[in-house]
Amino acid sequence: MNGIMAVPIPIFSASREAKAYYLSLQIGNALLGEATSYSQDVSLHSPFIDLINRIGLDPLTGGKPIFIPVTDVVLTSGLELNPLIDRATVVLMLQKSNAASDANLMRLMRLRGQGFKTAFYTYPSLDALEPFLPHLDYIFCEHDTQELMQTIRKVRLSGCRVKVIAKGIDQASLFNRVASFGADLFEGGFYKLPAISKDNRVSPLQVNYLRLLNQVNQDDFDLGQFAKVVQRDPALAIRFLKMVNTTYTQTTKITSLKHAAAMIGQNEIKRWITTAVASSLSQEKPGEITRISLLRAKFCENLAGVFEMGVHKENLFLMGLFSVLDAILDMPIAKALDMVMIPDSVREALVGEAGGFGEIFKFIKLYEYADWIEVSRIALIKNISVEEFFKAYCDALLWYDRLLNAQDIHDDELDAFDE
User: Fold this and answer.
1) Least CB-packed of 39, 40, 255, 294 within 10 Å?
2) How far apart are CA 306 and CA 100, in angstroms?
């Protein structure tokens, strides 16, 4: 099999909380003759199995449900016998081609009877969909007003407990309008957009975080002063100690912030505090904002070598991290970046997608939106295999998963605040 590309795309509730993800898959380079969309694949083996063999389910979705595409062939391949398929987590996602036969309806009924949840991502018509409604849990629908309202009405009149997922919601105003129609869940980039108004203000807590970011991003900063600043935020101090104790020492527990800072040095402090504070800045935003900020940071860093920019990997990490600062602070990106100390190359990329950094920034957004045609075009132009892109993204998913699952620190570490 050719290499694959994949990305989990979030699905939100009306409260803008990511409730699940659907997996977009592409086998091989979309512009080469031997490549194929997974929906057209005729192999008995699902590339999804390869993916979870490689990184597991948790890094993809953090334990939330994941919608995976299935073909006619895979529906007949004993999917329910595979131990890697968690029926409590995996939702089987069908395309309109799957609705063409009574045989597929019977297979769907059988799989749902065995505990699987099911969804249609696309469907040929509402009339063709009707026999499937009692055996579905979700339906994806374009956000076009007429189609969406007709689908919602059809589902509600059927009495079936099917949730309607509106696709392509890329504006906050569109999100509000579609929510008023009665859609249950939402997919799209609306959550990345800042809520800009004339009286937007940065909160005092955010101001403190921004000051700390700027302190550690100076060429030479005082470790003792750093420890004093961090100590004012117990939650941040605990996270710092946990990171040092679990990552940088195997035999001696460190309980002093100043000792820990001296041990790991300025470079590691700068990297950790930049990541931790960027995460804390977005704590009042949808959780997906934090997730995408950190994933982008590591993905950008991993792409440094792929795009022959290895010497710039630290600044590429910063670029990814601050790429949603406008959504975090609810102000235009240029104004948001005025509040942090960043290299000109990062600013130029985030404000105008200029330069070599801008090229990588544009690329990660294409990958994020599963624009496999454009991703494949860039791979051909740069003479890069899609597997290199996929590896860089998988490594970012695994890195983020490790951040979330760091071991708890012991109680005796909390006496750092007395130091």
Assistant:
1) 40
2) 42
